Amino acid sequence: MTSETTSSTDALPRIVPQRGMPEQVRIYEVGPRDGLQAEAVRVPTAVKAEFVRRLVEAGLTTIEVTSFVSPRWIPQLDDAHEVLTAVGPLDGIRLPVLVPNERGLERALAAGAREIAVFASATESFAKNNLARDMAGVLAMFEPVVRRARAAGLPVRGYVSMCFGDPWEGDVEPRKVASVARGLLDMGCTSLSLGDTIGTGTPGHVLELLDTVRGAGIPLERTALHFHDTYGQALANVHAALTAGVTEFDSSAGGIGGCPYARSATGNLATEDLVWMLRGLGIHTGVDLNALAATSRWMAHHLGRPSPSRVVTALA
Ligand code: MG
């Protein structure tokens, strides 16, 4: 050890921009919803609200706060009303919530939601196994939800699950993804998030999917990507998508939340890992990496397991 050893908390990547990349990326933070719903530990309401506040302080401006699904399905988020009313509304901060059906929309509106998300599937198997309907039935279920939310002036994000691989069907054809995505936009969704739910996608596959989606007339400015790091491909996939012009990515602070359909416990791309790469590329996100990592360490303590994020671990 020499006296020149610097504190690891001051470590940040050297900034070297790459030609053809966007100047700015929006991070759609999913930790409080997609993260916590898949964790075994049920976090107290006050801790969830504090989590969202700390994410805002770290510079995140779009945070999916909770889900208005039936508490019988996801008991971890049975306090959706309390959490949303505790944190919102916040000026300049988008706090979308997941809504599964019309009942969920009513509850979300009663709690003051100003933006919602619905979730469809690119495969019949996932729709049947996770939503208990066929794909057409899923779209039919969301049609009145989207219509009513839009009539109330709310933006609506449409998630598409299983866009790359499916645990029951294997490989997923890009044109099937484009078809569901088109259906969600036609229904009135204002933006999309295409998810690699089991994490099997690779960069060439990402570019093929984005080509197909764009070819179907879907604007990439309204299309986010949601990668899982199950097979270690999430950042490579983000990099490929950046070269294709995608400027919004979903990630979870500290990488919390596994995927119940994948074999590994590794789930969401960690926001810190994403921010590290974007920062190195000179791409602005507005996120304070050290403040965010400190928040993830604090949340790891509440969840009783270390953060799976490489950057959170390295900065500790
Ligand atoms: Mg996820």
TrEMBL record:
<protein>
    <submittedName>
        <fullName>Hydroxymethylglutaryl-CoA lyase</fullName>
    </submittedName>
</protein>
<dbReference type="GO" id="GO:0004419">
    <property type="term" value="F:hydroxymethylglutaryl-CoA lyase activity"/>
</dbReference>
<comment type="similarity">
    <text>Belongs to the HMG-CoA lyase family.</text>
</comment>
<dbReference type="GO" id="GO:0006552">
    <property type="term" value="P:L-leucine catabolic process"/>
</dbReference>
<dbReference type="InterPro" id="IPR043594">
    <property type="entry name" value="HMGL"/>
</dbReference>
<keyword id="KW-0456">Lyase</keyword>
<feature type="domain" description="Pyruvate carboxyltransferase">
    <location>
        <begin position="25"/>
        <end position="293"/>
    </location>
</feature>
<dbReference type="GO" id="GO:0046951">
    <property type="term" value="P:ketone body biosynthetic process"/>
</dbReference>
<dbReference type="Pfam" id="PF00682">
    <property type="entry name" value="HMGL-like"/>
</dbReference>
<dbReference type="GO" id="GO:0046872">
    <property type="term" value="F:metal ion binding"/>
</dbReference>
<dbReference type="InterPro" id="IPR000891">
    <property type="entry name" value="PYR_CT"/>
</dbReference>
<dbReference type="InterPro" id="IPR013785">
    <property type="entry name" value="Aldolase_TIM"/>
</dbReference>
<keyword id="KW-0479">Metal-binding</keyword>
